[in-house]
Structures are given as C-alpha cells and as structure tokens.
Prior knowledge:
Low-confidence stretches: none
Shape: globular
Order of helices and strands: HHHHEEHHHHHHHHHHHHH
Helix content: over 70%
Amino acid sequence: MLSWTFVAAMALLAVLPPRLPARLRTLLLTGVSLGAIVLIWHVPVIALLAASLAVHAVAARLPLLPLATRRWVLRGAIAAVVSAFVVLKLELGTTVGFVTTTSVVGFSYFSLKFIQHLVDAGSGRTRDVDLPAFLCVTFFLPTYAAGPIERTDEFARELRENRRGWLERAAALDRIVIGVGKKFLLADPLLGYAEPIMRDPAAAAPAVVLLGVYAFALGLYLDFAGYSDLAIGAARAAGVRVRENFDSPYLSRNIALLWQRWHMSLTSWLRDFVFVPLTRRVLRHTRHPLASQLTGQMVTMVLCGLWHGLSPHFALWGAYNAAGLGVHAAWRSWRGPVPARRTLANDVLATLTTFHFFAFGLILFACDLSQSGRVLQRLLGLFA
C-alpha cells in the first residue's frame, strides 16, 4: 500500500485549498485518487468505473419504481454485485501472507459500498448522493484498499458541509505516524515471527508455537489497526473525516464486545445489512428471540469469513466466532441483567478468556484446514 506514489498523491490531496467549492473539491479528490489507484495497483479502472456508474444509475431509479418492482430490481442488482465478488474471488484469488485475497485491490470493500448504496437508495436515503460524491466515496485513496468502509450518504454530507482548515489537517500527522509505527515497527516483525512457525509447527516446540499464535493475533490487530490509523490520518490531512475502525478490542470482557470494537466499519455494516434484517425475518417466523439471534449470528459470521476469502477455513473461522457469540448470548439470556458491581479479578479473567478464544480462532483465519489441524496438534503437546 505504502509507496512513493501513494505518499505523493496524499501530499497532493492534503494541499487542496479548504475553501474550494464542494463540487470542484470532490472532483479533484476523485481524480487524484483514481490516478494514484491505477499507478499503484494497476486495477482494471475502466471496468470498475463502469460498474460504479451502473450501480449509481440503478440506485437513482430505485425510489421512482413501484414498491414490488423496486424490490425485484434491488435483489437483482445485489445479486449481480455478489456474483461479481464471487467470480473475482474464485478466478483472481492469490495468496498474500497467510490468507487469500483478490488481485483486484479494493473490490471487497467497495462491493460492500455498492450493496449499502443500493439498499439505502431503495429506502430513499441516498437522494443527496450525486454521481461525483458516489465516485469519490468509492475510490477515495486513503480508504480504498483497506477501509474504513464509509456509508455513501454520510461521506457525501462530509464532502458538502465540512471545510477543515490547515491546522486541523496538520494535526492529522500524528495519526499517520502512529499508523506507520504500528504497521512497520510492531505488526510486520510480529507477523514475520509468526509466519514460519505456523507454516511448519512440527519444527518448533509447543511453547514456541503458542508464542507464534500470540504473535499472529497481536500482529494481525496491529496491521489492521495501523492501516486504519494511516487511512484516518491521511483522510483528515485531505480535509475529510472518516469513521474510526478499532477501539482496543483485545481489552474486551466478552466476545460480543470484542466484535463491536474490531473493524467497526465492517461489523456495523454486517449488523445493519445482514444480522438485523435476517434476525427480524427469522423472528417473525419463529417468535423465539434467542433462536433468531443465534441464526442471525451464525449466518452473519460465516458470511464475514467468506468475505475474507471463499475457502472452507474462512467459513469455519466465522462459524467458530458465531459459536462463541451464541454461547455468550445464551449465557446472557439465562443469567439475566449484568450485576451492578464487578470485581477487577473477574474483569481480568474475562478479558484474558476472550482474548484467548479469539486468538486461537485466528489459527483458522491464518491457515487452511489441514495446516490448522497441525498447529492445534502441536499446541496439544503443551499438555502431553
């Protein structure tokens, strides 16, 4: 992601005058972003622009259609986006580090923006998102490759209403420095330590494999959070405020809180566009709140896994986390309201338990099923 082209493009965005007319500023942000994306990642920009134009055109027509027709058109448009996502993941998938990703950088993120824009357009919430604003949120350089995932209506409002001055832009530099430090000084060494251990666990002692699991869990968080800090800081330097993405998830007392604080723009998207509508639909049929919640959690988390890659280990990673969320939901349903007073010892134990549950689940995220089995088998040597 980081290159001299990226740095030069971000410097150009940062020196755009704050008092430019909103439409001109939006066009310049989009033009510089598109140029940098083509130079850095060599994406098929004509095809992506055509897809963006098609999505915006369909979204603009949706509120004008009769309700029944609108629903069918919306479903067809979403199916087309999902189909394109699946084809790209299956045909263009490459291995980067431990995990599988698509060579069309950014498509996973703006496919979610497409779906969000279409759904919100069907509800009449995107009337103020014109084509320049839509293209800007789709291709905005700081958030293009790794998020945060912006909602199109919120981003368009930000472009129209805010004119952040030079002092506020300069203050964003500390966030950029923090992000670069997390990524290059902490995340890369941790992931570099973990990778050979998890690729060949038989060559390491069980205690070293455990350290590798810890290193991967911490490194993955710092890598994602570092990129998010960099993106948020770079966006603010360009005069645009975007969403926060991480909120110290490893300090959470339970798995539900951890997922509320992990990659928050993604988890909020999944909550709003998968979990809530699905849970409501299941509840109408079952009239059983807990069963509806468990069903929604399982489907949502499996889809979250498959969004990262169309492989069985990603689906199982999602199901593993759904099982943890389900156990927590069932426990809360059985236990009732949270006690008013908590002890420090209980909080520490709950936080450590939550972290270990999530960290061991990341073995499934990092490795395919057979390799995950070998890592877990080696970890069992700690108790032999």
